[in-house]
Design brief:
This protein is mainly alpha-helical and 110 residues long. Helix content is 72%, strand content 0%. The protein contains seven helices and no strands.
Length: 110
């Protein structure tokens, strides 16, 4: 994919977090590519800001919150349960889920 963008573009944009994503050659739609990038973020133990950007891109590409969560389930056997458990709150925050509020309501019920 990067080869089609041209070496000049790749080398001039390397390290730039705002660089455009390479376009799919038609084999993988943007939603699938965005979910795959989320899986890579989980594997890399990315920063919360990376999850926010990745979830935003996935949702913009048509993914649902359930598909984002399913991505965690899909990568668990590969990256390990500890990595998934670590990523879950970051993805929840990126989806706009209020973790503190959920924990408070859980504490009130028990």
């Amino acid at each position: 994919l990067w080869a089609s963008a041209g070496p000049a573009l790749v080398s001039s944009r390397r390290g730039d977090a705002t660089r455009p994503r390479p376009q799919s050659d038609g084999c993988v739609d943007e939603k699938t590519a965005s979910l795959a990038r989320l899986a890579a973020l989980v594997a890399l133990h990315a920063a919360p800001a990376s999850y926010e950007r990745g979830v935003g891109a996935a949702l913009a590409a048509g993914a649902t919150a359930d598909e984002v969560v399913d991505t965690l389930t899909a990568v668990a056997p590969t990256v390990g349960l500890a990595r998934v458990v670590s990523a879950a709150p970051r993805l929840a925050l990126a989806l706009g889920y209020d973790i503190d509020r959920a924990l408070e309501s859980h504490d009130l019920r028990h």
